[in-house]
Specification:
68% helix
Length: 151
Amino acid sequence: MTDLRTYLAYLTLYENNFRVLHWKIAGPNFHTTHERYGAYYDKLGAMLDETAEQIITVGATPVAMTEALSLLDETETTAITVNPALEISPEVADTAAAHMFEQLRAMAAELASNTTFPPEVADVFMDHARYFRIEGTYKLGRCKVTPSTED
Protein backbone atom coordinates (compact mmCIF):
# COMPACT_ATOMS: atom_id res chain seq x y z
CA MET A 1 0.00 0.00 0.00
CA THR A 2 1.25 3.45 -0.90
CA ASP A 3 1.72 5.72 2.06
CA LEU A 4 1.76 9.50 2.06
CA ARG A 5 5.49 9.79 2.69
CA THR A 6 6.38 7.44 -0.19
CA TYR A 7 4.10 9.41 -2.50
CA LEU A 8 5.81 12.62 -1.37
CA ALA A 9 9.19 11.01 -2.08
CA TYR A 10 8.11 10.17 -5.65
CA LEU A 11 6.72 13.68 -6.17
CA THR A 12 10.04 15.11 -4.95
CA LEU A 13 12.10 13.04 -7.39
CA TYR A 14 9.73 13.50 -10.31
CA GLU A 15 9.41 17.26 -9.80
CA ASN A 16 13.20 17.37 -10.14
CA ASN A 17 13.07 15.07 -13.18
CA PHE A 18 10.64 17.45 -14.88
CA ARG A 19 13.01 20.34 -14.16
CA VAL A 20 15.84 18.41 -15.85
CA LEU A 21 13.63 17.58 -18.83
CA HIS A 22 12.65 21.25 -19.04
CA TRP A 23 16.31 22.35 -19.03
CA LYS A 24 17.67 19.69 -21.36
CA ILE A 25 14.95 19.23 -23.97
CA ALA A 26 16.19 19.89 -27.51
CA GLY A 27 14.91 19.38 -31.00
CA PRO A 28 11.71 20.05 -32.92
CA ASN A 29 9.02 22.17 -31.31
CA PHE A 30 11.51 23.21 -28.61
CA HIS A 31 9.60 26.25 -27.38
CA THR A 32 6.26 24.48 -26.97
CA THR A 33 7.79 21.41 -25.33
CA HIS A 34 10.06 23.49 -23.09
CA GLU A 35 7.08 25.49 -21.80
CA ARG A 36 5.00 22.35 -21.23
CA TYR A 37 7.72 20.79 -19.08
CA GLY A 38 8.05 24.02 -17.11
CA ALA A 39 4.33 23.82 -16.38
CA TYR A 40 4.74 20.17 -15.32
CA TYR A 41 7.40 20.90 -12.72
CA ASP A 42 5.39 23.87 -11.44
CA LYS A 43 2.34 21.62 -11.04
CA LEU A 44 4.31 18.90 -9.26
CA GLY A 45 5.80 21.57 -6.98
CA ALA A 46 2.27 22.62 -6.01
CA MET A 47 1.34 18.97 -5.44
CA LEU A 48 4.42 18.56 -3.22
CA ASP A 49 3.14 21.40 -1.07
CA GLU A 50 -0.40 19.98 -0.95
CA THR A 51 0.87 16.53 -0.06
CA ALA A 52 3.13 17.81 2.73
CA GLU A 53 0.17 19.73 4.14
CA GLN A 54 -2.01 16.61 4.02
CA ILE A 55 0.72 14.60 5.76
CA ILE A 56 0.67 17.16 8.57
CA THR A 57 -3.15 17.09 8.62
CA VAL A 58 -3.16 13.37 9.39
CA GLY A 59 -0.51 13.78 12.09
CA ALA A 60 2.61 12.55 10.29
CA THR A 61 5.86 14.30 9.35
CA PRO A 62 6.82 15.20 5.75
CA VAL A 63 10.09 13.84 4.35
CA ALA A 64 13.28 15.75 3.60
CA MET A 65 15.27 15.03 0.41
CA THR A 66 17.66 12.50 1.97
CA GLU A 67 14.80 10.58 3.55
CA ALA A 68 12.86 10.75 0.27
CA LEU A 69 15.72 9.07 -1.57
CA SER A 70 15.94 6.39 1.12
CA LEU A 71 12.18 5.74 0.87
CA LEU A 72 12.46 5.36 -2.91
CA ASP A 73 15.09 2.66 -2.42
CA GLU A 74 12.65 0.72 -0.21
CA THR A 75 9.71 0.70 -2.64
CA GLU A 76 8.75 -2.12 -4.96
CA THR A 77 8.26 0.29 -7.85
CA THR A 78 11.29 1.34 -9.87
CA ALA A 79 11.63 5.10 -9.84
CA ILE A 80 12.49 6.86 -13.08
CA THR A 81 15.60 9.02 -13.06
CA VAL A 82 16.62 11.48 -15.74
CA ASN A 83 20.29 11.90 -16.64
CA PRO A 84 21.05 15.65 -16.81
CA ALA A 85 24.22 14.97 -18.83
CA LEU A 86 22.18 13.96 -21.89
CA GLU A 87 20.42 16.04 -24.51
CA ILE A 88 16.81 14.92 -24.47
CA SER A 89 14.47 14.80 -27.45
CA PRO A 90 10.78 15.58 -27.04
CA GLU A 91 9.97 11.92 -27.75
CA VAL A 92 12.28 10.67 -24.97
CA ALA A 93 10.92 13.32 -22.59
CA ASP A 94 7.31 12.44 -23.38
CA THR A 95 7.96 8.72 -22.89
CA ALA A 96 9.60 9.33 -19.50
CA ALA A 97 6.79 11.73 -18.54
CA ALA A 98 4.09 9.20 -19.46
CA HIS A 99 5.74 6.57 -17.28
CA MET A 100 6.16 8.97 -14.32
CA PHE A 101 2.56 10.15 -14.64
CA GLU A 102 1.29 6.56 -14.64
CA GLN A 103 3.23 5.71 -11.48
CA LEU A 104 2.03 8.86 -9.74
CA ARG A 105 -1.57 8.30 -10.91
CA ALA A 106 -1.62 4.79 -9.44
CA MET A 107 -0.21 5.99 -6.11
CA ALA A 108 -2.56 9.00 -5.89
CA ALA A 109 -5.59 6.85 -6.75
CA GLU A 110 -4.63 4.39 -4.02
CA LEU A 111 -4.29 7.23 -1.51
CA ALA A 112 -7.65 8.65 -2.62
CA SER A 113 -9.31 5.33 -1.83
CA ASN A 114 -7.84 5.12 1.68
CA THR A 115 -10.89 5.07 3.95
CA THR A 116 -8.88 6.08 7.02
CA PHE A 117 -8.31 9.56 5.59
CA PRO A 118 -10.81 12.36 6.09
CA PRO A 119 -12.76 13.01 2.86
CA GLU A 120 -11.03 16.36 2.28
CA VAL A 121 -7.63 14.62 2.37
CA ALA A 122 -8.77 11.86 0.00
CA ASP A 123 -10.16 14.52 -2.36
CA VAL A 124 -6.71 16.10 -2.75
CA PHE A 125 -5.31 12.80 -4.00
CA MET A 126 -8.29 12.17 -6.27
CA ASP A 127 -7.51 15.53 -7.90
CA HIS A 128 -3.86 14.49 -8.29
CA ALA A 129 -4.84 11.15 -9.87
CA ARG A 130 -7.19 12.91 -12.27
CA TYR A 131 -4.44 15.36 -13.35
CA PHE A 132 -1.94 12.54 -13.97
CA ARG A 133 -4.53 10.55 -15.95
CA ILE A 134 -5.44 13.51 -18.12
CA GLU A 135 -1.84 14.57 -18.78
CA GLY A 136 -0.41 11.08 -19.19
CA THR A 137 -3.17 9.23 -20.96
CA TYR A 138 -4.90 11.89 -22.98
CA LYS A 139 -2.46 14.71 -23.66
CA LEU A 140 0.74 12.69 -23.96
CA GLY A 141 -1.30 9.92 -25.57
CA ARG A 142 -1.97 12.26 -28.47
CA CYS A 143 1.80 12.32 -28.98
CA LYS A 144 1.68 8.52 -29.51
CA VAL A 145 3.80 7.95 -26.39
CA THR A 146 4.11 4.54 -24.77
CA PRO A 147 5.38 4.34 -21.17
CA SER A 148 8.78 2.67 -21.05
CA THR A 149 11.16 1.76 -18.24
CA GLU A 150 14.20 2.25 -20.45
CA ASP A 151 14.38 6.06 -20.04
